[in-house]
Amino acid sequence: MGLLERLRQADVPEETLEEKTAHDALEKIEDRISQISPFRVIFASITALLVLSASVIALVWLVPYDRVSVDVIYKQAGSSHIVLSEINNQGSRAIESVSLDLVFFDSEDIEIQRIHFESERIPAHKSVAGDELEMIVNGESVWDNYTIEIILTYDYYGGSIYEKNSMEVGEWTLELFTMRPPLQIL
Q1: Going by DSSP bridges, is the β-strand pair 126-138/80-89 parallel, antiparallel, or unpaired?
Q2: Taking phi first (over 0 means left), then psi (-120 to 50 degrees means alpha), and beta for anything else, what does residue 132 get?
């Protein structure tokens, strides 16, 4: 054995147990990576998307939750005020015995006009709007501030819900307001 061969053997130290284990793990990882193909990645991604979609659908349609909101639009028009409203049942079950009152007050808390809407049932994921939910207040000054009080009651899963809220209007010619109680999972 020559001098060069001895130097080459001296430069390469013998592998320790940890290095041997690391090399074996690296070889296994390289074998697994070589088995991954674009087709398998796409298939796994589509499968994960389907499972996630099924979970979301199950939560939205199967788990009962209560989410009812009232949207109100206030508009000043000439010598009158127009108040439009819509009841949105965004919950997973129907609501029953629905009652909505919109009360229009002046700046001194004197009731000027009121509308009352009742419905026996509003199905899940449906909205109700129309002539019964519109209020036109004629003859009141458009330069004053007013208050619109919203009172909503309904029955849901044997329980009765009562929501009351007020909105100050009159500073702008068009104002939007949504009364949305917090989400309740039943």
Answers
A1: antiparallel
A2: alpha
